[in-house]
Amino acid sequence: MLVGSSTSILIRPKLLINGSKANLKMLKNCKAVLRITNYIDDIPVTKNFDQLSFTNDREVAVQF
What we know:
Layout: E1 8-11, E2 16-17, E3 20-21, E4 30-37, E5 44-52, E6 60-63
Antiparallel strand pairs: 1-6, 2-3, 4-5
């Protein structure tokens, strides 16, 4: 990734209850934390994504 540019990440969660697939709509107030390291200065960067909603038929794209 180039400095100053943006990109998207696709999230495809999988929810299992006792080993069986469960409906992703059961998930409420979901968060994702992305931790990356700046390759030039070796500085860690953390980005939080709040209020994510998931469905069984598609991924969620987050842009950073």
